[in-house]
Every structure is written in structure tokens, then in C-alpha cells.
Amino acid sequence: ELKTWYERSGLTNWIKGSDATGEFTITRNDYELSSTLFRGTLDGNGYTLTSSAARAINVVEGKNVVIKNLTVVASGERAINIITNTKNVSVENVTATAANYTVNVAASAPKVNVKVVNSDLTGLNVVNVAGAGAVVNVVDTKITCNDKNDKENYKAVTVNKDGENASITVTGGEVVVLD
What we know:
4% of the residues lie in helices and 53% in strands. The chain is mainly beta.
């Protein structure tokens, strides 16, 4: 019996919406993804994950989480959502779009360290931080705020009121606001 790459790699439940721990590499094809909890390393190998869930990838309870070489197309509210007890997250060579938050550090993720490198992020609140004491470094990345809403002003980079003592540093790259 032939199995798909994700069944062989143990990713079957993750693709179906459960949680995943470990190292995963997409070796062929693009996939539709339910909202999921993720901890570990995900190498997209240049492929695309699409999701209509409110939160496409929820990074949870990971000490060292890596998401790389991947395109995430989230028609729901959030593409990469960093939550509960996460310590270090690296987003490398990722193209991600979301209806609202593209990379979001939730209030439930205080003191997390996030590094986004060589990526292309598009959304309304593109990089949003609510985690107190969170440190986010964005390096050589294009950030596009797609704010075409006349009723509200969205921001490319935001530390919101819950993000006490949090910081976002953007080095290199480009910030584009379409208003």
C-alpha cells in the first residue's frame, strides 16, 4: 500500500488538525491545513500550506521551533500564531499571508524570542506582539500591510497594550503600507 509523504513521516494527524511534535519536511505537493498546534521543526521545502481556519499554525509549548522554506496562505485571521509556553521561534525563508495577523505573538506567550529572516509577510496587522517581554527581530524581510479598510487603521508592526516591555526590531528588508 502506498502512503503519502505525510503518512510516512507521522504528519497525518497534524495535517488533519491535531498537534505535531518533531521534525517534518514536506517532500512533495502543497497541502490544505486545518488549524493545528505545532512544536518542532517544519521545513516546507518550498511548498505551500493553505488554511481557512482562524489560526493556521499555532506554535505552542516549543523550546526551539523552526518554520522554514514554506509558503503559508491563511484566509483565516492568523497565519503563524505563537501561543502558550513557547521560548524561541525562528521563521526563515517563509512567505506568509493572512486576513489579519501574519505573525502574531499572543499574550499567552510572554518572554518569547522570535526571529524572522529572509521572509515575505502580508496582512493587516502583519507583525503583532501582545506577549509581555517578547523580543521579535525581523531581518531582511518584506512586510506588507494591506490596509484597505476605511473604518480602521491597521499597522505593519505593532506592540499592543498587553505587550508590556516587548520589542520589535526591523533590520534591512522593506516595510510597505497600502492604505
